[in-house]
Amino acid sequence: MTSTFSNPRAGAVRRKAGMIALGAILTLPLANGLAAQDLDAVTRGGSGLEASASITGMGALSGDRVPLFLAVSINGKDTNLVAEFSGRLDGSDLRSTSDELQDVGLRIPGSIAQKIIAGQILDSEIALSEFEGLTYVYDSDAQRVLITAPDAALLPHVISASGLTSPQAADHATGAVLNYALTGAHYAPLDGALVGSTTLAGSFEGWIYSPYGTLSSTGFYSQTLRSGASDTGTPSFVRQETAFTKDFADKAMTLTIGDYSTQGPDWTRSVRLGGLAVSRNFSLRSDLVTDQRLSYSGAAAVPSSVDVFIENNRIYSGEVDEGPFRLEDLPVKTGAGDAEVVIQGADGRVRHETVSFFNSGNLMKAGMIDYSLAAGRARQAFGLESAQYGDSTILSGSLRYGVTPLVTVDGHFEASDTLKMAGAGLTAVPLALGELSIAAAASDYDGTSGGFVEMGMHTQIGMVDINAKASRSDGGFADLAYVTGVNYLGADTLASSGSLLEVPLAQDVLSIGIPVTREQRKLGLSYVRSERENSADRLVAASYGTTFNSGRGAFSMSGSYNLDTDESQMSFGMSLKLGAKTFARATSSSDEAGGTSRELSVSRTMGSDVGDWGYQGQVSLDDGATSFGAKGEYRASLAEFAAGLQRSEDGYYIEGQVDGALVLTGGALALGGRIEDSFAVVDTGVADMPIYLQNREVARTGRSGRALVPGLNSYASNRVSVEVSDLPMPVSMGVTAMDVVPARRTGALVDFKGENTAAGVMVVLRDARGQVVPAGAPVTVNGKSAAAFVGYDGQTWIAAAKASNQLEVGGATPCHASFAFAPTGALQEVVDPVECL
């Protein structure tokens, strides 16, 4: 007996085929090989025996239990699963483990779970008779059990509305990438007594990738040349970050050795360190939904269609079978709302249900876990020094877990030789009314203890959006951001400067968003209070914004007032859409000191297609001083180019910039646009040929016949192709499209290099008298024997004609011919006559 396994439900039975076959072989003779036996199907239920079995010739079966490996059918539908049961030979008193029963789709009721906990039922011996309303039929001949169960006894069929597909196995190649941004700038003062200057700068990001991991580094170079001076500025290069990373896509985890920024909940602060880190990386798994979204649970009596609407917009449409189901991961906006669920059965009956929700955006999906753990030494003087680290080892760790669809918890700790800090937090959405969050932490820094607490709330009352957050700490609370700052700058420097590295003693934020009308007009009000050891600020602000009809423009205004310093500011802004990519903008701002700033600009946004361009022109008036500027951008296949000019009352500033990437993969070198994730190098062997990504032209090959195609999605299929119609006449390609699945930040070589063959031509072979050569004679073409045969009327097809061709004709009257050929572009190339002598 063979059993075929499938997995229609999460956690389906995964039993080895050999075990199933062995169990079936051992059990089948016992059940069917009894002499003089006539065994009817036995029906069992929650109340005991419902239909008796008649057995002739043997009397009652013994009460011994035997293992049974049975195919399972529930409510008339085959599950395509085989489960292990134990029972008597007549099929009565079938039992199985809770895991096995859940795998085939049965829900373990709370009453049974309580009996298991109390020891009244062993977990390995849950009887089907324990399920209220469940009946079953044991079919010994087919070795299957036919279960009939109410919806309450079934696990729901889980359907994800995300539409996300499982990531594909990636091709792990070896290669290197160098992103660069080169800038040259010159300042020319209008005052001849002043000396102008020229500045050269470059920003670089490079990495080497292989199946074993990726080694990356970033840094920047700068040098100032003073015109009119004999000496030049000293060139400098500052390394920023260097790290080796290894991705484990199946576990959504990344290992980092080198420079790293710590992670943590919203109430913590990040620090840079050099060391070792292990963290979840959900970007490696495109199939995972990590945030808690709207879900709906229901049941269908017959196969039905399910549609979900929000504000009359359909956000989901699908089909369900009869029985319980749960629809998860419904995409909804952040905040409160109502969803209407419409279920229409195959029998024509329609059911409507309204579901209220509050989507916080800060809850992890139930059962999902996020973590990070890092150890190393604090990075100091980042951006100023290339390799300056602290003397002490620091530790940082965080954990977030979705406990239920409405509750997420988190924990965090930090430690060094002088600091120990730990805390925990909770985020919840009670009764779809809003989001509540609370966090608390305690620390001990150099013998001084301190505490921290934070509470937050986000809700909607009608159309009014309200956000509030308040935190308090005592003077002794510290974290790694403060401690590493003290170690580098010194405590006295921090205390005297009012640095933001200090943990606020009190911080309150309140913001209210009020819709003014049904059109996109909104009034915003906010209050911010922050208090530190040596500074305090209280700020109130208001803003108003609206969009014009059909998205043709927008208007905004805002103002703020500092209650402690009496400083105020007011600003206005308006934008108009002049075309698909062209906009005009005007802004104006002023403060209490009488300072004013006004600006008018016109710009065109540069798109992502090769050959696209953009520009910006602006005129500014700052406190009576006028300045203007202009900038142009162009996206070429090899790089992006930009040039700009700025004139102020002091002088001229001219700047040029080139952004691009140099890559090496599969032994092929290519230039192109900046690489952010994954890419492909396409080799066609043909210059100036369009390259398509997902059927959209994204690059053109250079003189080498190669093109760099950035923008590929890692761990997903990317269709890279060329069009046959773009090929020049003498070139043919066996393959014109390939699906590429690169790993994160890696590249692939796509080789479309065709065979540069001459076009085919029909020649008419004639002898010296002009008579056609007899049909059927073999022809050797350019040394290749039997490459063609003479046809009727001397017509001979030469499939791969060259500029100069030699023919040897065999048969009864052998002869030799030669002819020159140049394609004319005709639908059928013909050369007549070709003398064969």
UniProtKB/TrEMBL annotation:
Record organism: Aquimixticola soesokkakensis
Top-level taxon in the UniProt lineage: Bacteria
The PapC-like C-terminal domain, residue ranges: 763-819
Name of this protein: Outer membrane usher protein FimD
InterPro entries: Fimb_usher, FimD_plug_dom, PapC-like_C, PapC-like_C_sf
One GO-annotated biological process of the protein: pilus assembly
One Gene Ontology cellular component annotation held by this UniProt entry: cell outer membrane
GO molecular function terms noted in the UniProt entry: fimbrial usher porin activity
